[in-house]
Amino acid sequence: MRDGPFATDPLDRPAVAAVGLITLFVAALATAQLTAAKVIALPLPVALPVVGPEITLPGAALAYALTFLASDCYAELYGRRAAQVVVNVAFVANFLVLALVWSTLAAPGVNPEVAAAFETALAPATNVVAGSLLAYVVSQNWDVFVFHAIRERTGAGLLWLRNVASTASSQAIDTAIFVGIAFYVAPLLFGVGDPLDPSILLALALGQYILKLAIAVLDTPFVYLIVGAVRE
């Protein structure tokens, strides 16, 4: 008898898929937490209004986008409650990642140059941590909620619609919260740098969302592939 998504048979495909999707979710989330401090710029073929000739976004954008792919597949296969458990347990795991990183940085290093390089690369800024944590817990729970709200109204069909709609809306929430907290509210509250001008904030948020929306559309075939493979 199956207990949740897992079965007594270790070769059972749904059980293997559940472990794989949770692993992908947690690995992508941990990677996003460690790479959020790096800001990258992607050139555009043409300059867009407000955004300009390039999209500026945190290095965690691609890794974080994979969490929505994993959570949507998991929600479709194992239900809303199971997906919410994964999302919220992973939120707690964020603090474990931060604690381990901070404790490693605080430990005395044998080579000062290496220790300084580690701190420069991995030390999470207060504004980035505050923005990413709040954005994560709100947007991921919203993603699961919208995904199943659409499923309840449309039935088992239209997987593409609930995947794109839930990810597009949750990524909009995620972008607004992260950019607003990390680059405006947190600098005002914690004094970490200067808050960005509203016009720069808008360009930053809009550029990030364009890329995230493109990823949400492009990952739809992979959602069908994963869900179909498990159900077969």
Key structural traits:
2 strands, 75% helix, mainly alpha, two-stranded antiparallel ribbon, 232 residues
Describe the structure.
By secondary structure, the chain is mainly α. It has eight helices and two strands, in the order αββααααααα. It has one domain (13-231). The protein has helices at 13-35, 61-78, 80-106, 112-122, 126-154, 159-190, 198-218, 220-231, and strands spanning 39-48, 52-58. The chain has a two-stranded antiparallel sheet with strand order 1-2. Strand 1 and strand 2 form a beta hairpin. 75% of the residues lie in helices and 7% in strands. The chain is globular, with a radius of gyration of 19 Å.
Q: What's the arrangement of secondary structure elements?
A:
Layout: H1 13-35, E1 39-48, E2 52-58, H2 61-78, H3 80-106, H4 112-122, H5 126-154, H6 159-190, H7 198-218, H8 220-231
Antiparallel strand pairs: 1-2
The ordered H/E elements are: HEEHHHHHHH
Helix coverage percent of residues?
over 70%
Tell me the number of helical segments per DSSP (H or I, 4 or more residues long). Answer: 8
Q: What structural class should be given to the helix and strand makeup?
A: mainly alpha
Output the radius of gyration. 19 Å
Query: Count of DSSP E strands?
Result: 2
Strand portion = 5-15%
Low-confidence stretches at least 5 residues in length (pLDDT < 50)?
Answer: none
Average of per-residue pLDDT values:
85
For the largest sheet, list the strands in their spatial order.
1-2
Shape field? globular
Distance between the termini: 19 Å
For the biggest sheet, the summary is:
2 strands, antiparallel
Number of structurally distinct domains: 1
